[in-house]
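Notebook entry, structure prediction.
Reason for the run: the old model in the group folder had no record of what sequence produced it. Starting over properly, with the input documented here first.
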Amino acid sequence: MTGGPELHGFPPPESVPDLRWLGPDYISVLVYDLTRGLLHQDPRTSVLGVRCEGAPSLAPSVDPAGVIRAHDACFPLQVYVQDGAGRPWCLRGRWTYFGRELGTSAASITHAWRLLSAEGA
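New structure, fully documented this time:
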């Protein structure tokens, strides 16, 4: 992500093959989706950095034939932002992707942010 926020602590995509369902570069997808959500709340927000605080929690589910059709991936994150008024914030939370009907024409991927704390200056 040229010119984007500083990124730290994310496992390299090739070291987490269970995240291939998010695409070849899950980090860019995550940062894009997260930034879009924050901009929806405050269009003048700037995302300065994102730190993954640990390995993602992965929860696959298999169908009766043993094929993974659902997968959740939860990332513990610290997100450093500057709000529209210019105030810096550190947001701590969990970013989770929910993949359903993976490998079928009905496949869908949604996401959710669970804010645990917000510290401003």
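Summary: The radius of gyration is 15 Å.
The old model has been moved to the deprecated folder.
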